[in-house]
Design brief:
Number of helices: 4
Largest sheet: none
Structural class: mainly alpha
Order of helices and strands: HHHH
Radius of gyration: 42 Å
Number of domains: 1
Oligomer: single chain
Distance between the termini: 131 Å
Length: 160
């Protein structure tokens, strides 16, 4: 039966389980953060030493991984194969957060520059306006000059 363009498609059944990428990302970050601590290194060292001690010193019937410790190597390889992608996922999420932070910082800097330029223009216009306004010192000097002129005129009129 051919599909018709005037009919809606049937919903596809998804066989894969659904997961929340955000929750998985948070979990991967927590795991990666823990793997970068001294506590993790101590736990891994204790576990490996206990593994080797058990398989070297326990009675031969109780040993589950004899001397070349192949199963230990397999377990460490398995741990590393899961650790690397989890660490990369955590780094990608951190890169995304850093990019968003960078964009916010850039826009904040642009606003600060615009505000600074505006304030600079306002200060310049205020300076220009103040230079046109008579200051107290200017008025005092003008009044003193006028008083001297008046005194000089009065001095010229008195001898007559």
């Amino acid at each position: 039966m051919s599909s018709r363009l005037d009919q809606p498609r049937d919903l596809r059944r998804n066989v894969l389980p659904h997961y929340d990428p955000e929750s998985f990302g948070r979990l991967s970050e927590r795991i990666a953060r823990f793997m970068g601590t001294a506590r993790f290194l101590v736990y891994m060292t204790v576990a490996i030493v206990a593994w080797i001690a058990w398989n070297a010193l326990a009675p031969s019937d109780w040993r589950f991984d004899p001397y070349p410790f192949i199963f230990l190597t397999l377990m460490l390889s398995l741990q590393a194969s899961y650790a690397a992608p989890l660490i990369l996922l955590a780094q990608n999420r951190q890169d995304d957060r850093d990019r968003v932070q960078y964009e916010q910082d850039r826009s904040r800097n642009e606003r600060n520059i615009a505000d600074t330029e505006y304030l600079t223009r306002e200060i310049a216009s205020l300076r220009m306006a103040v230079s046109e306004v008579a200051t107290r010192d200017f008025l005092r000097s003008e009044l003193e000059r006028m008083l001297k002129e008046l005194d000089a005129r009065d001095g010229q009129k008195d001898p007559a």
